[in-house]
């Protein structure tokens, strides 16, 4: 059995439609009134959107029900599915902890509550019957104030038993007006020894070369090979890995056809830039990581040798894997012995 690493999965978008709908049935009568029949809900939840901003609005639907009390319910089912249906050995979950705190509280009270959220996610992610190495990436957010984002970075630095890095979310087109602020936050994170990734070069409006030096991995990054291939040599020198999430670009209207990703993979392989294939929002897409692999193969975007290289890159760039061999190598050694 091949085991995989998933480096880019959002907690808010990881809940598969059936589980979310059943939760609404039992605990959210106001929401279930909109979707009394499951097929209608699945169609609404998983359909493509016109823009990334429209797509991201769906996260608020899930964030509103992911609380201290309910997170163990959702995470147990997430881990179970990842182990049984996706063969994951390693999983990084990313989310904004502030958005899981009660919005009835003051900003300072919500900041204080974030540590509890991280602890709950960390404890709930460790399920003995489904052994997966898990860690969290805490997301600053383009629409949250500086004080909250800085507190998220401080929290990441103080909770390294559960947290392996930081990210910035909220749509890369919204960084421009606060670019210096976000660069300063990344500098601050690196000074604390916090590992970094970030949603960047996902859309044509999210191309900020000034941010690239502060990232160890690049969330999406597909516009680098598509529009700015001159940057690939620098990305390769910096040993930065692109976290490419194929289905996302069709769901957000960023690409018209999955075959457009062939340029992304070809140019990255030619330049020596690593790619980790990811799901991003497996629940919103109603897909799992092996489907992303199969889709790229059947559309002749990559071949099996390139797929293997991407799978190995995912373990190599995993923030909390610790430099260990990927599981397939360990099993091969046991068989040879």
- Total strands: the figure is 8
Going across the biggest sheet, name each strand in turn.
1-2-3-4
Strand content: 5-15%
Into which percent range does the helicity of residues fall? 40-55%
Q: Any overview of this molecule?
A:
This protein is α/β, with parallel strands linked by helices. It has a single domain, classed as Alpha-Beta Barrel (TIM Barrel), CATH 3.20.20.140. It has 16 helices and eight strands. It has helices spanning 17-27, 29-32, 38-46, 52-63, 71-86, 107-124, 146-158, 179-191, 223-227, 232-237, 246-251, 261-271, 282-285, 289-298, 304-316, 327-336; strands at 4-10, 88-95, 133-141, 163-169, 199-200, 217-220, 241-244, 274-277. The strands form two sheets. It has a four-stranded parallel β-sheet. The two termini are 18 Å apart. Keywords: Hydrolase, Metal-binding, Zinc.
Task: Summarize this entry quickly.
With 337 residues, this protein is an alpha/beta fold.
Keywords:
alpha/beta, TIM Barrel, 4-stranded parallel β-sheet, 16 helices, Ado/ade_deaminase
Spell out the blueprint of helices and strands.
Elements lengths: L3 E7 L6 H11 L1 H4 L5 H9 L5 H12 L7 H16 L1 E8 L11 H18 L8 E9 L4 H13 L4 E7 L9 H13 L7 E2 L16 E4 L2 H5 L4 H6 L3 E4 L1 H6 L9 H11 L2 E4 L4 H4 L3 H10 L5 H13 L10 H10 L1
Helix pairs in contact: 5-6, 6-7, 7-8
């Amino acid at each position: 059995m091949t085991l995989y690493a998933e480096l880019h999965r959002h907690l808010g978008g990881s809940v598969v439609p059936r589980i979310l709908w059943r939760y609404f049935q039992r605990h959210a009568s106001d929401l279930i009134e909109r979707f009394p029949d499951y097929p209608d809900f699945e169609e609404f939840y998983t359909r493509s959107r016109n823009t990334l901003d429209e797509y991201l609005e769906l996260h608020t639907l899930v964030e509103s029900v992911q609380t201290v009390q309910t997170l163990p319910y959702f995470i147990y089912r997430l881990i179970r599915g990842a182990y049984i249906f996706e063969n994951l050995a390693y999983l990084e979950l990313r989310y904004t902890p502030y958005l899981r705190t009660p919005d009835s509280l003051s900003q300072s009270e919500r900041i204080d509550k974030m540590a509890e959220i991280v602890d709950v996610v960390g404890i709930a992610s460790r399920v003995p019957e489904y052994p997966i190495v898990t860690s969290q990436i805490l997301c600053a957010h383009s629409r949250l104030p500086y004080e909250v984002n800085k507190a998220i970075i401080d929290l990441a630095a103080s909770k390294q038993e559960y947290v392996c890095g930081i990210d910035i979310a909220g749509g890369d087109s919204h960084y421009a007006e606060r670019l210096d602020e976000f660069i300063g936050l990344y500098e601050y994170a690196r000074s604390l020894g916090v590992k970094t990734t970030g949603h960047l070069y996902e859309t044509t409006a999210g191309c900020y070369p000034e941010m690239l030096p502060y990232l160890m991995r690049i969330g999406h990054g597909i516009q680098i090979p598509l529009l700015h291939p001159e940057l690939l040599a620098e990305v390769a020198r910096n040993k930065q890995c692109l976290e490419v999430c194929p289905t996302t670009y069709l769901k957000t209207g960023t690409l018209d056809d999955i075959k457009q990703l062939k340029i992304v993979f070809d140019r990255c392989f030619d330049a020596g830039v690593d790619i980790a294939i990811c799901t991003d929002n497996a629940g919103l897409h109603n897909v799992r990581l092996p489907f992303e692999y199969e889709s790229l193969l059947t559309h002749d975007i990559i071949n099996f040798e390139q797929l293997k290289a991407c799978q190995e890159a995912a373990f190599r760039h995993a923030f909390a894997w610790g430099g260990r061999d990927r599981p397939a190598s360990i099993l091969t050694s046991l068989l040879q012995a």
